[in-house]
Design brief:
Length: about 210
């Protein structure tokens, strides 16, 4: 059985998700921002082992807690899309200088590519690269749970910004149409900010796609 929780925290209210396999007591984290006391509360309450952090993209508000998480779970593996990796260590590209006034630099352990499938905590996770918000934004689709973690790509009734470095609005819209809106309509979409939605809802009511 799998349990998912969300903590909204950090400098710009980022949704950080925890998924726990209650049979093996292993956990993964999707994006990492803000206080680790709150961020890791579900993991600690379950007495689980955090095995991986999946980063949807490299912007500071999704990665600023990564190194603090690594201090607590030294063996954790950090994943990011191959084309976004370079942004992790560049405070200009990851926006940490512009928004926080101090540099954030993060290291990943693994990069993933579009269409790659990884297996963590007993789940098969398909990596779907959707450039546009950043050059290598990565969405994580778990078919068995009917769940998509999509960072700042697709929102309830909207899409992510594309005016930051490496962003491209036309690419973002086209890639969402080609890669996300083809998923089953009942797929639950868990974005990096604001409320959850579904693929079906966005296909029929999102301003950008109707």
């Amino acid at each position: 059985m799998y349990k998912m929780t969300c903590r909204t925290q950090g400098p710009v209210a980022t949704n950080c998700y925890t998924v726990i396999n209650e049979d093996t007591n292993e956990a993964i984290l999707v994006d990492a921002s803000g206080s680790t006391d709150s961020l890791l509360s579900a993991v600690k309450d379950a007495g689980a082992k955090l095995v991986a952090v999946l980063l949807t993209h490299a912007h500071f508000d999704h990665v600023d807690a990564v190194e603090k998480v690594r201090d607590i779970f030294p063996e954790v593996q950090v994943y990011i899309g191959v084309n976004d990796e370079k942004l992790l260590s560049d405070p200009g590209l990851n926006l940490s200088l512009a928004f926080m006034g101090n540099p954030v630099s993060v290291k990943s352990d693994n990069t993933v590519s579009d269409g790659e499938e990884i297996e963590l905590i007993g789940l098969k996770i398909r990596c779907i690269e959707v450039p546009g918000h950043t050059i290598g934004g990565m969405c994580y689709y778990i078919e068995s749970l009917g769940t998509l973690f999509d960072g700042d790509t697709l929102f309830h009734g909207s899409i992510g910004r594309s005016d930051f470095p490496t962003g491209n609005g036309e690419d973002l819209i086209k890639n969402i149409e080609d890669k996300l809106l083809v998923l089953p309509e009942e797929t639950k979409v868990f974005p990096g900010h604001d409320s959850e939605t579904t693929i079906g809802r966005e296909k029929t009511s999102n301003y950008y796609f109707i």
